[in-house]
Structures are given as structure tokens and as C-alpha cells.
Specification:
The complex is a heterodimer of chains A (about 130) and B (about 160). With about 130 residues, chain A is mainly α. The termini of chain A are far apart. Chain A has helices at about 5-25, 30-55, 60-90, 105-110, 120-125. Chain B has helices at about 5-20, 25-40, 50, 55-85, 105-115, 140-160; strands at about 90-95, 120-125, 130-135. Chain B has about 160 residues and is mostly helical. Chain B contains 6 helices and 3 strands. The chains are: A mainly alpha (about 130), B mainly alpha (about 160). At the A-B interface, helix 1, helix 2, helix 3 and helix 4 of A face helix 1, helix 4, strand 1, helix 5 and strand 2 of B.
Chain lengths: ~130, ~160
Amino acid sequence: MSSEAWAETLILIGVLFDLLGTIGLVRLPDVYNRLQAGTKCVTLGTCFILAGAAVWAGGALAMKAVICMAFVLLTSPVGAHALARSAYRSGVAAWEGTVVDDYRGHVERLMHAPTPMKDEATALAQTEIA
Amino acid sequence: MKRFAAFPLFLLVWMGLTWSLHWQDLLAGVLVSLVVCLLVGRFVALSVLPMLSPRRIFWTLVYLPFFFYHCVRANLDVAYRVLHPDTPIRPGFIRVETTLPSRAARVILASSITLTPGTLAVDLVDSSLYIHWINVRGKTHADYHRAVVAPFERILKEIFR
């Protein structure tokens, strides 16, 4: 195959994964399940599209695409994690079919502690890395 | 001075993005990297030199294809659940304990878990990871640990030993 055909194949695979992710967003029942579809499929889909662009253009642009892939892989799980955590803490209910919930205990301890526990993020922001 | 430990890394990323060795681009890169170090350097526990030991590079190279394989599997798994007419899911929030000692290793573990089959890290409290799992299997923490954390933990332990 020519490099253009490779690029088109990669971009097509990427678009398919993105499509699956968006179908997941519509079909799954609650915030947390939707985030699952949103992070996994869209991350890999975007990486495939960027890989396709890298093969297509080559040279300096390929380097940029690779760096963008690294950034997407680093930031998208952290973003999903922050969304899920703050959704849960601000009381967004999980779907009624949820089978176990080990997290509720921790959040309740945090909310009903006699002196509000210092949030880990605040604590982290105040420490220098040793 | 700790906050300047990641300076070479920032400069490398800048050089990759500009893809030019002209002195004006390099000067701008040095200035930008310095500003970034001043702003966020204290959150970046990475210093470049210890990352360059052959052992770490070797295990990182082992980790990457392993991670990619699980990432693709995760996507096919989500695709199956999404396209199936009954959307077969059995979601739940579980807690697992990790034995990884360093904070950086735990964050990488949480991020890897988020991108792999059916699991999404929700919170990280000391050594406890709270995870949303789209299809809970097993009953005990040991079951959860074996299915979700163990495969990544084994390799990350080698990288961050």
C-alpha cells in the first residue's frame, strides 16, 4: 500500500472508534458509564487519527502529531478521573443497576467528619515535591 | 532548585513542537521552559536523569506495547457493550489497594486503569484506588485486585523500583 492508503486506513479506524464512543455516550445509562465510553474510545480514536495525519504529512508535522498523541494519552484519563470524582462528590447518582459501591463510605466519611478533612488536592498544592 | 528538574524535558517537548534549531526558536524555548518551571515545576516530580537508567528504559519499552494491547482490548470491549441490543453492563464502584510506593507510579497506574478494559479510576486516597468498573466480576478485594490492578502493577513496580 502507498503511504496515503495507510494514512487513510488509520484515519478511518480512528473515526470508527470515535463513532463507537459517541454511540456509547448516547446509549449508556449514567455519567460514570458514559465517561467510560467517552475516555476509552475517543482517546484511541484520536490517537489513530493523529497517527494517520503523521503518516500522511511526515517530517515536522509527524513529530507534532506524535507529541499530541502523548498529550492526549496523558490528559484524557486525568480529565475523566476529575469529572467522575467531582460528579460523585457533588451527588450525581449512579444508575440503579449499580451492583457495588465501595466509594460511598469514603465520601461520607469525608463529608461528615467533625472537622472537615483537608482535601488531598489542597494538601498537594501546598507541599513542595520532596 | 527542585522545580527546575523537569527543565530539559520541557525544552525537549518545545524542540519537538517547533522542529527547528534556529537560535531564535531555541532562545524562546529556553524562556518558555523557565516560565513553565516557575509556574508548575513543583508539581512535576520527574527529573530526567533517573529516568534514563537502562533498567527503567527497558521496562518502559515492555510496558508500552502491553499497555497498547490492553487499550485496544478495552475499546473492543466497550464497542461490544455499546452495540449489543441489551447493553450488557454490571457497573459498580470498587476499592483496590496498590502496593506501589511512589506517588508518580500510583498516578500512572490510575491513568492506565482508566484507559483499559471497563475500568475508570475515580479517586486515589493514599494507597487505595476507587474504581468504577463497567462489568464487576468477583466478590472480594482480592478478586478485584487480580483482575484490574495486578497486570499493570507488576511492570510498574519494575519501572519505579
